[in-house]
Amino acid sequence: MDCWSPLLDVDDEYEKLVIRMNPPRVTVDNTSSRKATLVKVDSANKHGSLLEVVQVLTDLNLTINKAYISSDGEWFMDVFHVVDQDGNKLSDGEVIDRIQKSLGTRRTLRGSVGVEPTSQHTSIELIGRDRPGLLSEVFAVLASLKCNVVAAEVWTHNSRMASVVYITDDSSGSPIDDPDRLAQIKQLLRHVLKGTAVSAGVTHAERRLHQMMYADRDYDRDGGCVGETFVTVENCVDKGYSVVNVRCKDRPKLLFDTVCTLTDMKYVVFHAAVISEGLEAYQEYYIRHLDGCPVSSESERQRVIHCLEAAIRRRNSEGLRLELCGQDRVGLLSDVTRIFRENGLSVTQAEVTTRGSQAVNVFYVTDASGNAVKSETIEAVRGEIGQTVLRVKDEAAGYGLNSPPPPPQEGGGFSLGSLFRTRSEKFLYNLGLIRSCS
């Protein structure tokens, strides 16, 4: 089969012209479904268009329960069934207006990395081998260098740690742009990370975390078992697609994580269907590589499977959830993570935000061996930090991440074709462009 790709025949300037002449059409429909708000997007197509749309919806803290995607040639049509954080249809006019404005004026996702302080903060990217107490040491170094952490996102997976940290000068509250000071920060953080990468960047934080973990090859197996996630890749020869099926426990931002990974691996999603059923999520993608070819070898097939499994697991919240809410101050994170370390706690994931003068931080912790934390240890930590400041909220069990779904049926993989047909979800098949490869 000859490989082809219409996307490669369109240069960047022509893409920009097409998009200006055909701006995205965005419709927010609150009447067609009883359970969800439908967001419909029609737009000129380019590589990364789907990710841009999913990123906007995810950043608005919306949950995507279903999605139907079709994008052959130079145009794509997407339908997303979304609900708010409480599982309700959208009723906030401001949120609806933000959806229409954001999707109607999308810009190309930034992918460059370099020293570029914004008008509000300086961002630092960290990647290295994970170990107990690492986050505590990072925040201690920043505090000692008079840096105030205003926000941070930390992921750990497969013995790696990746983080995007946003800092300002602790006295002026301004971004740090002095080259000598930035060089000192990088030097000391490299020492803490034992020589691994430290850089400053401007990419969307969560996408950048995926890119950093991927570049660090966290998808390589180290004997671990992926029990709660099933991914298959098969070729649909007559149509020239590779069909990717994903079945796993549902959770927020799952669609973003899988689409982000496929996009950064240079695959184009031509058609897709996504559905959440209870605690489980099912995703089916019809893809080709940017060069127009489907997956062409067993090694490439395994790589796609392992990378998607890793992307799903990176954000899985392992451990006990601790929420810290209180008055923000310089050195707060250094002190809190030091107390964690001194009590034998290891941070597996963290999200640090500042709202006005308040620190609103979330940590997922285990003991140093990765096991559940004893209640007496948590009470000791809360006693040092403050009972009203640090609260326990273990919602990992709520997402069912500790118990895998039943294994797929005999015969290897599975297909979503029968699932959609039995539920009258025939979107992909009615297009006449594809058919089930089961």
UniProtKB/TrEMBL annotation:
GO terms for molecular function: amino acid binding. The keyword Repeat applies. InterPro entries: ACR1-12, ACT-like_dom_sf, ACT_dom. Residues 38-114, 123-200, 321-397 form the ACT domain. The keyword Repeat applies. Pfam families: ACT. PANTHER family: ACT DOMAIN-CONTAINING PROTEIN ACR, ACT DOMAIN-CONTAINING PROTEIN ACR4-RELATED. This is ACT domain-containing protein ACR. It comes from Acorus calamus (Sweet flag).
